[in-house]
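Model the whole thing, not chain by chain.
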Amino acid sequence: MGKNKSYHQLLHSFCLNPSLKFDGQETDEFPILVVRAHPITQISWIIKGFFLLFFIFGLNIFLSYYLKLYQIIFVNFFGLCFVFGYWYFNFLQWFFNVGIITNKRILDVDFYGLMYKETTIAILSKVEDITTKSSGFFPSFFNYGNVFIQTAGAEVNIEFINIPKPQEVAKVINQLLKDGKSSYF
Amino acid sequence: MENLVIFNNREIILIFFKAFSLIFSFLYFIFSLITFQQTKAMTKIVKLKESEILIFLSFIQLILSIILFTAAFFL
């Protein structure tokens, strides 16, 4: 792992030295690791979308008895837009729920639904304890889990949920703490 | 008694269909509008290379919702 070597794994859910910028980034601050939920944890909404598509196409048989052709086309078009909207909304939720580990801080950016966003920041020097948790068949098989970062005093704690390679994430943070917060790579 | 029947079954279905089309396409338009605004807000917080593509996709969704809402009027 060289200083400037950048690589992404698992559909950008585990990115080392990414070319990412974020709101409030300091001039001498650079992201070292960016994590998102493991792609396998997102499979449910993809499958649900396909079920919705099958349902809409199945509905055509029933609608053909009552509606005219242009109305059936409208229903299908609306259904396709709805499924696209459903997939796109879930994708955005996954894509923008990120954990960012920089040479100075740890950030947890969360977007819930359409209206709510939350950014939790912890300074590296305040980190006291890092716990990783990975239990169950799928987390063990696909190597994903949770990372809990406990900070000192009144500082907030940070949680990265269902992220890939939790042990490696903990290792990166530990190494940053050990090496004086800025010389991991 | 027969004179009191204004709509037959087919017409009732069509009226309901039009009403539901208008309501749901309007709701979809609101959803698209909020998604578009939220995407812009998200890309301001986390700045990525893919930000422009995501904003473009949100814009496409917004255009589709306007087309749907307009089409619902002419059903």
